[in-house]
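Section 5: illustrative case.
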């Protein structure tokens, strides 16, 4: 609108009005907020700054303040290029770019209010590309999803164990360096069904 392109708004239940929460990208540019997740009483989301950089932000409804979040791999002002955020086992995680390690999984640290690299699924520069948003399902408390680790054989099926917060390979469906490319994950009758 006239306040500056596509930005974050809220519909207040108290008086049925819609108000601007933050003009993340000042002026006519679009902040284009997305990946909205509520965690620990605050709203986390990604938005564009500087026209192209996609960064993590948090809105505190108590203070009515929006703050850009730094990461241990990307200081404020760098491009984190977030593709998803999700809550698992009481912790907030984000899939974003790292400096030198590709796209990997980050964990939000409540003590520092920053995202920290949680695991380098695909060691070195290549992307681990954990895909929870499209392929993530829960079975017996564990989170199943697809990710890439070239040392174990391309894009395959993994699970995030709730018992010890570790990520382990479930199956190398396409043996060797080929991608099994698992998808369409569905839990039925206590089992996990998928195509690969």
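Designed sequence:
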């Amino acid at each position: 609108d006239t306040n500056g392109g596509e930005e974050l708004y809220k519909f207040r239940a108290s008086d049925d009005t819609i108000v601007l929460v933050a003009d993340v990208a000042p002026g006519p540019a679009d902040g284009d907020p997305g990946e909205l997740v509520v965690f620990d009483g605050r709203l986390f989301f990604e938005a564009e700054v500087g026209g192209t950089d996609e960064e993590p932000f948090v809105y505190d409804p108590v203070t009515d303040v929006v703050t850009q979040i730094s990461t241990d791999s990307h200081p404020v002002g760098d491009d984190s290029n977030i593709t998803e955020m999700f809550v698992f086992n009481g912790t907030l995680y984000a899939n974003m770019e790292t400096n030198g390690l590709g796209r990997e999984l980050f964990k939000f640290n409540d003590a520092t209010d920053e995202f920290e690299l949680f695991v380098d699924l695909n060691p070195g520069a290549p992307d681990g590309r954990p895909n929870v948003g499209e392929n993530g399902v829960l079975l017996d408390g564990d989170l199943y999803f697809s990710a890439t680790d070239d040392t174990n054989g391309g894009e395959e099926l993994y699970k995030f164990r709730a018992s010890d917060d570790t990520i382990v390979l479930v199956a190398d469906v396409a043996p060797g360096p080929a991608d099994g490319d698992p998808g369409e994950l569905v839990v039925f009758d206590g089992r996990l069904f998928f195509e690969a």
